[in-house]
């Protein structure tokens, strides 16, 4: 009988350690995701109301950042995890998902086109954050140092994405506090991904490839059909082109640094 009680106590201690580890991993992933995109939204507290000319530059800048993230980060990572077919399959699925979301928003969300663009960007960023969370959870399963290091990198890496999402929302007239809250929300899937990664441990490379490709396809859709046309909507084509080039350069630089 004493041996049974000792065994039960041992099981409870081990189970408690496992649950604490999973909870810690989830919280780190959640904070990293929400902080990263939220910092991009925080920038709007220092912006004045943009003019038509600055709108062209800002939307071009956001489009340039998004395009650089797809080409330099998401697509190569999707291919590296599995193969080109899975990456392209994911991109097609992400493209279709955002097209359907765009149709839904245009019919049922009574906001300006800029706000709808910002919301669509949030959907794409949320898709991107889930596999990043999986990586954090899997990292913590190896060592705590690796998991925390990945979370720190992901938080900084999400800043330009949050900024890109905040830009059209700012142009659309939302208040800085509303934009900040909205940019925090897409960070939540990183916490969900971290939880799944901690529980499952090793994630299927094919699944990761498709999810990363879907995030890339979603962001590519937004860039091609929302941000770039919005940048050239006014008669400031040169300014829009400058914004796109500046965004591309910034995105590439941040990707290399982070």
TrEMBL record:
Subcellular location, record wording: Cell membrane
Gene Ontology terms, MF aspect: zinc ion transmembrane transporter activity
Keyword vocabulary terms for this entry: Cell membrane, Membrane, Transmembrane, Transmembrane helix, Zinc
Family: Belongs to the ZIP transporter (TC 2.A.5) family.
Membrane topology reported for the UniProt record: Multi-pass membrane protein
GO cellular component: plasma membrane
Keyword Lipid metabolism recorded: no
Transmembrane segments: 22-47, 54-76, 82-102, 114-131, 179-200, 206-224, 236-257
Keyword Cell membrane: yes
Organism: Orenia marismortui
Listed name of the protein: ZIP family zinc transporter
Source species, domain of life: Bacteria
């Amino acid at each position: 009988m004493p041996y049974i009680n000792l065994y039960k106590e041992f099981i409870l201690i081990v189970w408690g350690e496992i649950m604490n580890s999973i909870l810690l991993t989830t919280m780190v992933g959640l904070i990293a995701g929400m902080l990263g995109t939220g910092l991009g939204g925080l920038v709007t507290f220092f912006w004045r109301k943009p003019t038509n000319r600055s709108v062209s530059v800002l939307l071009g800048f956001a489009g340039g950042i998004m395009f650089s993230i797809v080409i330099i980060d998401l697509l190569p990572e999707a291919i590296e995890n599995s193969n080109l077919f899975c990456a392209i399959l994911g991109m097609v699925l992400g493209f279709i998902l955002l097209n359907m979301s765009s149709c839904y928003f245009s019919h049922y969300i009574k906001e300006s086109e800029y706000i709808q663009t910002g919301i669509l960007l949030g959907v794409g960023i949320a898709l991107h954050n889930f596999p990043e969370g999986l990586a954090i959870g899997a990292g913590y399963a190896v060592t705590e140092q690796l998991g925390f290091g990945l979370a720190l990198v992901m938080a900084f890496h999400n800043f330009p994405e949050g900024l890109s999402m905040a830009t059209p929302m700012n142009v659309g007239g939302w208040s800085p506090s509303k934009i900040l809250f909205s940019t925090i929300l897409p960070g939540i899937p990183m916490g969900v991904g971290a939880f799944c990664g901690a529980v499952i441990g090793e994630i299927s490379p094919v699944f990761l490839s498709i999810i990363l490709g879907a995030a890339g396809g979603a962001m590519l859709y937004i860039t091609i059909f929302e941000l770039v046309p919005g940048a050239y909507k006014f008669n400031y084509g040169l300014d829009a082109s400058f914004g796109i080039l500046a965004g591309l350069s910034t995105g590439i630089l941040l990707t290399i640094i982070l």
